[in-house]
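Quick log. Single chain, no ligands specified.
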Amino acid sequence: MSGERFATPKAPLGTAARGLKAAAGGGRLVVVSNRLADPRKPAAGGLAVAVGEALATSGGLWFGWSGKTADDGAPSGHLQVQHAGKVTLATLDLSRDDLAAYYDGYSNRVLWPVFHYRLDLAQFDDGHFEGYQRVNRLFAQKLLPLLRADDVIWVHDYHLIPLAAELRALGCEQRIGFFLHIPLPPPLILAAIPAHEWLIRSLFAYDLVGLQSQADVAHFTRYVQDEAGAEDLGRDHLRAFSRQVCVRAFPIGIDVEEFSALADTAESIDTRDTLREQYAKRQLLVGVDRLDYSKGIPQRLRAFGRLLANYPENRNSATLIQVATPTREGVGAYDDIRTQLELLAGRINGDYGELDWMPVRYIHRTLARKRLPGLYRAGRVALVTPLRDGMNLVAKEYVAAQDPADPGVLVLSRFTGAAEQLREALLVNPYDTGGTAEMIQRALRMSHQERVERHRALMQRVREFDVHWWRKAFLTALAEAQRAG
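-> predicted structure:
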């Protein structure tokens, strides 16, 4: 299954409206995520856009961590409830100890690195597992009294994998779905986690588990078959641990119309025009990422350096603008990668730069979202080359930002979930420095006709499988999934 191309979920798109109504069952949609966003405010991420729209339209409850720590010495669990239009926002403060164990510890120092195939960076022995369990149990205890009998619950991401099991233990019988926004690793990597069986067993408390790609579904299926003797019931249903669950790929998309509107803002137009004026005699390449070891930015810079070494015609011509948004500063692995990037950028600029040309412009700060479409539009080539990524929406935003009459070229890592959908991109292995450099050269020399044809196909898929399709497809499948148990 891992070699299969992307296929749409089994629920026909024409049944989406019926599925949404059935999923709601006349009741509310309850969304649970680590962090919340006010649905009345402009949203940047796919989750905030999709969930915010669903809740704002039908009303509902959004539950999660407040983003705040409790006062010194105070325990976790202080519940705050406020209303944002039709949406009820319910948030919990966490104590410093709980936050350190659940979020900084187990979620981001065990699950994040392992799920991105980085066993060398995982910290298994720091005693954070109990804190992860404790906070998920607290979430369940605080959420349960807020639930109604006909609610449908949609839980998001790796922070909250065991939440349904905790809710079931308290007697919750509502329909519950789960979506994992990051990749799921192969069985042997997953089995490196000391509590791996408990973790996967927890997922069988859900009625529907949504993953980003067919490869992720294959990894899940193979794990439960090898480790738990799971039975394939057909129609994407598996039985193991005396329960059954529906597991299916739902690749998340972007809000194309919202992003197109951003492209028409003064900030976006100003960014595009300024870059085109400044780089009128250059070919601009762009990379936009969070500063994370999963994004493959050092490998990207090395490939760009190899491009300049192997194809000298790009010297004093090609310029890479690499935006690396700060994240988790003060954590050793992230401090190390920042130092590494600064050294690489300096070396390339020192080896190849001229008085009037800097090969790499490395920007270590957050770029205003309204400026992103202008940056994307100015880029002749986008380098989206993570070592592993659940989906990667930058790839889809770049496609959506292009001028159809004169589009740029997307160079995309084959190790992103997006690669299953965006097959007309130039797919690369980011570990292969020479091969990536060769593919960047191909992108820079691609004919106008080929660029237009590739972009047309990519844009059609980005539009068809947008964030609204993702939400509707998931909730339809949740409504139609056979009940767990």
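Residues 256-464 form a domain with the Rossmann fold fold (CATH 3.40.50.2000).
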